[in-house]
Amino acid sequence: MATAKTISEGILRSIAFIALAVVVLYFFYHIQTVIIYLIVSLILTLIGNPIVKFFRKRLKFSNTLATVATLLIYVFIIAGFIWMFVPLIVSQSESLSVLNTDNIQNSMQALLQQIDGYLNSFNMNSKDLLKSSNLSSKLDFNFIPLFLNTIVDTVSGFGMGLASTLFITFFFLKDKMMFIDGIKTLMPQRHEDRILNSLDKINDLLSRYFIGLLLQLFIVFILYLIVLLIFGMENAVIIAFLCAVLNIIPYIGPIIASVLVAVLTMISNLGSDFQSVMLPQTVYVLIGFSIVQIIDNNVSQPIIFSKSTYCHPLEIFLVILTAGFLFGILGMIAAVPIYTMLKVIGKEFFPDNKIIQLLTKNI
Question: pLDDT for 2-15, tens place per residue?
Answer without folding.
Answer: 566 677 777 888 88
